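ESCALATION

Customer reports they have been waiting on this structure for their group meeting. Please prioritize. Original submission:
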Amino acid sequence: MSQLHARLAFISPSTLTANGFYMTDVEQTKIKRTMLINSNIVLALIDHTKFNNNNEFVKLCDLDYLDYVITDRPIFSNIVSVQN
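Update from on-call: job pushed to the front of the queue and completed.
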């Protein structure tokens, strides 16, 4: 995996909190972290049911690590602040 490079990576995390993006599976987390590092642009695809999910998760990355987040509903202001 470390030899792969992508111009654009789409990542689908298990949850989004004020502390970052999280995954439920350690092996998937390792693979996705490798793609985060080896990509020019990273987008997260996450639906509203994954906002502030309080289950046990492995941290994937901080909020500011990704370039874009695509959701089906606005992200709560207590999770992220909108910056222009």
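Sent to customer with the following note: The CA atoms of residues 45 and 70 lie 5 Å apart.
Escalation resolved.
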